Amino acid sequence: MKKIGVLFGQENTFPGALVERINAMEVDGVRAEFVQVGGVEMAKPCPYAVIVDRISHDVPFYRSYLKNAAMTGTAVINNPFWWSADDKFFNYALAEKLGVAVPKTVLIPSKQFPPMTTAQSFRNLEFPLKWDEIFAYVGFDAFLKPHDGGGWRDVYHVHNPEEFFAAYDQTRDLVMTLQAAVKFKEYFRCYVVGQEEVKIMAYDPRRPHEHRYVLEPQTYPAGLLERVERDALTLCRALGYDLNTVEFAVEDGVPYAIDFMNPAPDADRHSVGEENFKWIVDRVAKLAVKKAATAGIPMQGLRWSGFLSGEPMKTEAKKAEAKKVEAKAHTGAEMKNEERNETGKVKAHEEDLRSQNVKAARAAVMRAELPPRKR
Asked: Which of 168, 221, 302, 304 has the most CB atoms around it within 10 Å of its CB?
């Protein structure tokens, strides 16, 4: 029997509905339940073929447990290694590289020193920051928000430098981002499941939390929803998330990706609405069952996948391959030595001179551009 476990915290409607939906599918040899875990022995296989993680971002013990489970062959939704490494500022930079529209964003150091640090810990940090340049780049109005947060916690809408500094003073030791505000007409939150299926939901972040999902029918410009779906898939495939929400604010017909690091997205029946709730429960159930079919295969596509598989390094094979490469390189060097003549030496000497001239020119330019040192 392959077990699918749901790991969760304070949420009430989604975990139970997911377990019920999986079991109602009556897939032979598959059963779902809530995860039960105590002390975790290192490298010991986990009893679950699949775990749907809804809470490890808040409970470090669970995150470490899930990494151990992934190492021993459990399929974890979402990848606990990447989730640990990811942050929202990196997300914005990645989106820019992928050609997905994002508002101008700047990373800002924490207002207060993090625990166990002093002023000496920040000797590499420019002080004071060039606030005028930052404000000129981002513009106002803007949003000040954590570089790695969620749930709209510690988010400030600021309209000028005075409001910015008043908000910044309240951010404690949180690393923040300042992001240009999008004057949106339409706003979407999209469920993305299995990097294949997208559910686009009208959303209004200006409303009270429990009323933000717009349930009334809406009409949109031609092509807008298609682009939103395409960009949502592009982001989730690049990030590798099997379950995520991607938020877009649309200004002048352009969907700007605002937030797309939500690997345990809101799925509460009372906030998302009945139709959206049924959709997400059904799709995650099918995804979990699909992953159960390949349980026991370590996570792929990671630089540390060799460690996850538990396979010993093939030292002898590596040595043999290294010897082949060395022998080939040695033979090639001998052939080059035989072919080298005086003409080749002259050309090499001329190339060295050109290289030195280029380096000297670059150094001169750098000296000219550097501001005079303050005394």
From this structure: 168
Q: Residue 338, Cβ neighbours under 10 Å: how many?
A: 8
Half-sphere exposure of 268 (CA within 13 A, CB side): 13
State the residue for tokens 């979402």.
78
pLDDT in tens, 157-172: 999 999 999 999 999 9
In this structure, which amino acid lies at residue 332?
A: G
- The pTM of the full predicted model, rounded to 2 decimals, is 0.78
Q: Cα dist. 26→19, 31, 292 in Å?
A: 12, 8, 13
